[in-house]
Each structure stands twice: as C-alpha cells, then as structure tokens.
Hints:
Order of helices and strands: EHEEHEEHHEHEHEHEEEEEEEEEHHEEEH
Number of domains: 2
CATH topology of the largest domain: FAD/NAD(P)-binding domain
Oligomer: single chain
Helix content: 25-40%
CATH architecture of the largest domain: 3-Layer(bba) Sandwich
Number of helices: 10
Number of strands: 20
Strand order of the largest sheet: 9-4-3-13-20-19
Amino acid sequence: MNLKSGLPFWLIKNGLASEYKTLDENIETEVLIIGSGITGALVAHFLCEEGVKCLIVDKRMESTGSTTASSAQLQYEIDVFLFDLIEKVGEENAVKAYELCLESISTLQKIIKKLKIEADFEIKSSLYLASDAKGVKDLEKEYEIRKKHKLPVTFLNQKQLKSKFNINKKAALYNDVSAQVDTYKLCQGILNHHKKHSGLVVYSHTDIIKIENKKDFIEAHTEKKNTIKAKRIVAAPGFESENILDEKVMQLNSTYVFVSKPLKDEDFWNERCLIWETARPYIYVRTTNDNRIMVGGFDEPFQDPKRRDRLMEKKNDLILKRFKKLFPESKIEVDFYWCGTFGETKDGLPFIGEHKDHPNMYFALGYGGNGITFSVIAAEMIKDMYLGKKTENIFSFDR
C-alpha cells in the first residue's frame, strides 16, 4: 500500500539517500528491526548505543515511508485531552503518558546533539486554540488538570491571545516546551551515524513475508526467499503492523498537508509557535527554517489510496480556508502538498512491547499525532526490555 501521495516537502528538500543495499543472502544478527522510518532508526540508536548488533530491513527505500509525510511537530500533548485519557486509562497512567511525551522531547534533543545531526531541531512554543464555546470549556478543564499535575501550561484568554499573537479566538493553552524538526534529515542522520560507527546495516526493498519461531532463535523470511536469523525482532513498520498482528489495534486515517511558498519575516505570527485546535477534524500549523508555513489536517477515515488521493485538492482548499480564518491578512500561497495514511488507537496511546501471540518480538507502534515522541518512548523501553531491565509498561497490548 502507498503510505503517501503528492510531493512530501522533506523528500524534495533533502533528496533520497545516495546509496542503499538490498538483501540477497541468508544472514544472522542479534536484533532484526522491521521498518527504517524514524521509529526503527530510534530503536536501532538505543540498541546500538548498548553494543547490540542490529540490522534493519524495509520493503521500501530507507526512511521513505510515513516518515517523509510527517509534519514533525513535537508536543507532550496527545490527541486525547488529559481529562479524557484519565477516564480511559486512569489518572496515574494518563499523567505518566503525558510526562513521558514531555521527557521524550528533551531526550530527542540530546540524541541530536550527541550524534551531531543537522536536523533543523528547534524548541518552540505551542498554542492549543479553542475552536468554539465547547472548546473553551474543554481547555478550562484541561488547564486545571495539567496545572494540578505540574505540567507546563498557561491559559490565555481572548484578550491575551489577540494581544500576543493577533489571533481572534476565545481561549488557548500555551506552553514553551514543544519542538519541531526535519524528520527525514533526523532519520537519515541517525541511520548514517550508526552505519558508520556501530556496524548497523540497512537493507531496502526487502519485504518480510513470514516469521517463524525456532527453538533458540526467530527467523524472518523475505519475499526473495532469503532468511534472517535473530535473537529478537522489533516490528516498527507503522500501520503496516496489521500485516503481522491478527487483532485490529488501530483505525487508519488519512491526513492532508501543504507547504507554502517562502514568506517574508514580517508575514509570520509572534514566536512562530506551533498551532493546533480543539475542533475535530483540526488543522495543525508550523513553520520551516526556510520561511515557509506548513499546514495540515482535516483527517478522515482511510478507505483506499485512490480515494484518499482524489480528495487532496478539496482538502487543501478546506485547510487553507481554515488557516485564513486564523490569519485573514496572511499572504500564504501553496507550493507543495501531499497526503499520508496513519494509524490511530482508541485511547490515543501507542502500543509498545511484547504480544502474547508473537514470542521473541517487540512492537514499537507509535500511532496518532505524536508519532515521533511515541517513537522515542518506544525505542528506549524496548532497549530496556531487551537488556532485561525492569520496565513499567503503560502502553502494553493488554492495558
């Protein structure tokens, strides 16, 4: 299945990897990672840092799946309000999930600094706008519960929002601990570092079609009839995990994104903060380091790639109109646009760890709008699981 369509900005901006390998022999490794997107790259990073021999396979060219379609906004907030998440998974686990997302942003920043990756990472402020009267009430409730648990949050009323950001909405939640990144450069940077320094090997165009558990190892079979023998397998293929799992753990959605032509400095809002809203479906807004605006949203349930792609122009018009309601005087013009498919869980949380029907495998399934932050959490947890460290897992399949 095509994960995306159109012209993803990150791929155009950075270009494809200069070289890649395909598997044409039987091999062995300690840990086999399925998926070379940002999740697989981060899993490889944490394991390689511990001296674990890793190998990555991907049915596509490395890093060219959903990673290239991501808007790469890094927020500790998830698509489900904290007060709603508490109803779903309990207060302790809900708050822990938010705290782990917050911690993951600084963890990612440290990784980028340590590996000296040029990934256009920036700490940013974030605005969560009330779209209507219900949104105001929800944000008031959300503010109180976040404040209770000492999560970074400030409530802005209509006057404050208009004065500071020139946005005419009734209310917003504000924080200054979010971030943005070039997700494709980040993924490529991590992979290239560990290819050079840790012996990591990445095989593109290598499709795993069968996995067998043997007595002392697990064996993956490729479409080209080669085998990969490993102690453990990490499945990080995004929503294509449905090809491995029998149970349905997510709903597929399509999201639509465009990037503007470059603008002048004076055409941007204060702080160039990340923006999203309480409306469902919502739009999300960020900027790029070459003075563009990236706007996406109007997600809808995925049915098939052809229908998803036919809707691109209509969705672009809706997204642009919604953006211009926020900034009526904006001179924004669309330059690139694309759409992508992603998974979403009922509680908005990822699935991480082992599954009862798949021994010797770990899953790193960071669904939803927090794919990158969830990926950081998953990678670190799987590293601990593999090393036999005691791990409290609030993202297990049996939660």
